[in-house]
Amino acid sequence: MNANVGGIDKILRIVAGLVLIVLAIMGIGAPWTWIGVVPLATGLMGWCPAYSIFGLNTCPMKKA
Fold it and tell me: 3-state SS of the chain?
């Protein structure tokens, strides 16, 4: 499981996930707002299974 989420992508995932979870806790919006757990988890782990499937990577390149 190599990291494939980095930089701004990681920050946006964490913020979006937290916003959706807060909306769900406050009862604002539909029950689907609990889906915020997914971007929060992928942002915190730095790994996204969908990115792995499609071969995407937003992590900076490591210099050898």
Answer: CCCCCCCHHHHHHHHHHHHHHHHHHHCCCCHHHHHHHHHHHHHHHCCCHHHHHHCCCCCCCCCC
